[in-house]
Amino acid sequence: MLGGLHACFLCARRETTGRKSIKIKIKKSVSKKASKKERKKERKKEKSRIVFFPVV
Q: What are the boundaries of the region Disordered (predicted)?
């Protein structure tokens, strides 16, 4: 459904629904510039908060 936004969607999913769309929008605009930095941040967050969601 969300194409290549799966990691971001997982990250946004544990926030409130209102913030979800905002987060995805931000991630979309950022993904081209700082994708590496963002991915590192996301992975750290996911490791600490949700262990049962594998990021493919």
A: 24-56
